[in-house]
Amino acid sequence: MNSAATSKDEILAKSRELVRQSGWSAVSIRSVAAACGVSVGCIYNYVDSKADLVGATVESVWREIFHRQDEPAAFRSTEACVTWVYERLAYGHERYPGFFTLHSLGFMGEEKEGGRRRMDGAWRHILAMLRAVLERDARVRPGAFTEAFTAERFADALFSLMLAAMLRGDFDPAAALEIVRRTLY
Fold first, then answer.
1. Which one, of 3, 1, 4, 49, lies nearest residue 27 by Cα?
2. Closest alpha carbon to 166 in 108, 90, 74, 106
3. DSSP code at position 68
4. Which CATH architecture has domain 8-47?
5. Where in the chain is the domain with CATH 1.10.10.60?
6. C-alpha distance from residue 18 to each of 24, 142, 144 (Å)
7. Long-range contacts, 162-165 (Cβ 8 Å, 24+)
8. How does pLDDT run across 81-123, given as a tens digit for each residue?
9. Where is average pLDDT lowest: 5-14, 108-117, 140-149?
10. pTM
């Protein structure tokens, strides 16, 4: 086995590939070391434990699914953003079968806290993106938001719809888009 150094990016790419091929149970220090062609000790240069490896892999999957700065059109309107999120949910569901369900059931054993924390971070990022798009959307009619019904509360409601769709495996944004149109425009 090659004990040459690898990189954290390579470790996470190999970990994601293991998840795609064999599911989350395939991710371990030994299996990732073998996939990278390095020693187990080399992997420990980048992660402290299996829990750290799984948590970093979870974050890496969320980033792959949702962190797309190269798609500025997706953030120009609320409708475009909602459509984009549903498309990314479909992509994640196809690319990482069971990933969303795993989170809804609350992660595995010792990896639970790190995975949950990273998932929450991804969700906060998506929610903040929704809020920002809502606040910039020029099509939102004047008076759509009030002191009691704020853009933040509407973003929370939209996000709840998206989470429910994610758990159901329903990646059609039609219902959410209809709510956006009837409520805001």
1. 49
2. 90
3. -
4. Orthogonal Bundle (1.10)
5. 8-47
6. 8, 50, 46
7. 162/82, 162/85, 162/86, 162/89, 162/126, 163/123, 165/86, 165/89
8. 999 999 999 999 999 988 887 755 555 454 556 666 777 777 8
9. 108-117
10. 0.83
